[in-house]
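Researcher: Here's the sequence for the chain we discussed earlier.
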Amino acid sequence: MLGTHLLVAATVLASGAQAPVVRGPVTEMTFAVSPDAVTKGSRITLAGEAGAGDSGNAGPVDLYFRKSEDDAYARIGRIAASATGRFSTTLTATTSGDYQAVYRGNKKRGEASGSDYLAVYTTRTVKRLIYTWKATNMQCAPVCRAHSPELTLGQGPVHLSFQRDCGQTRSGGSLGFTPDPWNKHEPGDPGWRDFPDGAGPAEFDLAPTKPAGHFYVTWSSVAREPGQPTRCQLSYTATQTATEIAYV
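Model: Thanks. This is the structure I predict for it:
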């Protein structure tokens, strides 16, 4: 029996065959930060799954953060993966950057890591100038017209401050925003305001149905008495409230 064993061993060595290497299951990992973009001070969730199979994956997970690729990762905490490999924690978002989770494994599982980027931003409400126009001594008898260049509006209503003064003459007209090259509008159009006999508010909002177009003003003035001046002073300013985003 001894000679037989020696013969087998010699045959294996002579052929150059290697004994098979026994390897454990490959450690896999998923990791994500959610949501992926939040306002500063919001709560975020860091979660993932590591290991191999449905059990036997319990082990520590170290969490790291860096502001940019030029920075080194700094350790910010440690949590535990369960037997199924799942891990999760919540944090307060303060700045944009990369989060990394490193699964340290156990006696049966190797290490694994994953990273994900989080965008953090602040917001503020600002008043944005859209367009302003002014004309003095306009001869609006029987009618004068003016329009803005092509403009693109943001979301939400447009606030108008409209001033008109035609002295003691009888006047009236309309002011609105439209993509229609003929500047047509129906009564009650939310993008228009009519001023019969010149009456109406000096401050008002318009809600154009299309974001691209131009402002258009039509005004007419008729002298109450022959020879009376019919020149008008007209001006308007259009602004819009917008949300400004700054990433931190």
